[in-house]
């Protein structure tokens, strides 16, 4: 089913680019071919973790004039949250460089060079 959609798309693009009806409808300024490399960008940082625990700790400190002994429960909950977050990040990094079902730019470039695209337009 997906292959049929790809064929239909290619036919539509070739019809738009062709000069059968006079001028082409679509006039690309670059060839309609994918490059064999990907821009080497760093992945975005994830969202901040343990924000609620940190805000509870800050509120407790503010109420108790920054005395650690009175906020031991909040400190303990914050540190346990940080340890859990670090453990999950470590496990995710050990599983591989594929993050969120996506390849890193280096892996994508390696695959594109191994299996190059057609060098002519559709």
From TrEMBL:
PROSITE patterns cross-referenced by the UniProt entry: CHCH
Q: Which InterPro entries match?
A: Cys_alpha_HP_mot_SF, Ribosomal_mS37_met
Against SUPFAM superfamilies, the record matches this protein to:
Cysteine alpha-hairpin motif
Query: What PANTHER family is this protein classified in?
Result: CHCHD1, SMALL RIBOSOMAL SUBUNIT PROTEIN MS37
Q: Can you say what this protein is called?
A: Coiled-coil-helix-coiled-coil-helix domain containing 1
What phylogenetic lineage does the species belong to? Eukaryota, Metazoa, Chordata, Craniata, Vertebrata
């Amino acid at each position: 089913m997906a292959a049929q959609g790809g064929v239909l798309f290619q036919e539509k693009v070739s019809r738009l680019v062709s000069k059968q009806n006079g001028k082409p409808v679509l006039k690309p300024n670059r060839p309609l071919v994918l490059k064999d490399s990907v821009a080497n960008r760093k992945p975005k940082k994830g969202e901040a973790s343990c924000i609620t625990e940190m805000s509870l700790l800050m509120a407790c400190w503010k109420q108790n004039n920054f005395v650690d002994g009175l906020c031991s429960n909040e400190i303990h909950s914050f540190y346990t949250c940080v340890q859990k977050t670090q453990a999950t990040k470590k496990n995710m990094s050990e599983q591989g460089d594929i993050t969120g079902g996506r390849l890193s730019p280096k892996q994508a470039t390696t695959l594109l060079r191994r299996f190059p695209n057609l060098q002519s337009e559709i």
